[in-house]
Amino acid sequence: MANTAHIPTSNSALIAMIADEVGTTFEDTVVGFLLAGVGNVDLRRKTNYLIVDSKTTDKQIEDAFKEFTTRTDIAIVLISQYVANMMRFLVDSYNKPIPAILEIPSKNHPYDPAHDSILSRVKHLFNAESVASTRH
Amino acid sequence: MSGQSQRLNVVPTVTMLGIMKARLVGATRGHALLKKKSDALTVQFRQILKKIVSTKESMGEIMKTSSFSLTEAKYVAGENIKHVVLESVQTASLKVRSRQENVAGVKLPKFEYFTEGETKNDLTGLARGGQQVQQCRAAYVKAIEVLVELASLQTSFLTLDEAIKTTNRRVNALENVVKPRLENTISYIKGELDELEREDFFRLKKIQGYKKREIEKQLAAAKEFVEDKFAEKISLQKGISINAAHNLLSAAREKDEDIIF
Question: Name one GO molecular function term (chain A) (predicted).
Fold first, then answer.
């Protein structure tokens, strides 16, 4: 197929993260994943995660998103949904299969499936399908 | 779009008819195959759809547990564990590997995570809360497991969606554009060939009739000639040339001058 994106088979790829750490609350998603061993710092001191706090500008988040989605060694980008909402247009317009964008919930911001670009499509299809299947 | 414009611009010949028929057969087979492919993809797509929904739901649960265990670890190990963790990041020990899965010619990526190198235990050396930290790590690894699965499902979902769209477009194009056009072309060529045949037949008939007439004419001429010959012969025998006889006859028709008066 000519128009399907080429999917590289890599032996090892990273998981990137853009997640929040908001102000005074000591809840943050990145730390947990870093603890699990996801974090990576390369020779040029570039990290594969971005901690969004109250000082982080939208521009920085967008740049990080663009960088993570264009890097070849990243297979999955985790974005906390609260951050994804800040640049919804970018996330929605992204349509490549790799790296996969995943919106994850964070504690202070409850998960809303309606905002998730993928899940809204899934739900839409799923509802249509279940309606169709009940009609039979 | 009339029927006339819906055909290929070809010379109506028998060879072309053969080519068109072969193409129609090819298009029909291709259509059937693509239809099958589309069906297979749709089956897969629905399975993935169901899986995505259930995994998304379980993701919320797991994230909640892991967040809770992180809070526990923080409570036990102190607030500054965050900074220790952030400082101790070097190379990723938890990575993903992707491989491809082939569904009806569409390559779907499948991610799986793996740990590389030894699990870092340096954080257990903190003053307190080593066990909680370990639990927290385990919880997050579990969360990653789910997230990675979800990522591969989601990627498959997008890829399949795209593939199904393309396949369906091709199926419809074959069914509604290519096949009718070929059929129209075939019927056009057939019609044209029939027309040619009728024309030929008519021409042959015409020539036949012409020849027949020509022969009859010649026969008639020959007959006349023979009759003329015959008449001349008889008149010669009688001593009068046929011309003289004619003259005689024609002379008789002329008004006679009175000789005496």
Answer: proton-transporting ATPase activity, rotational mechanism
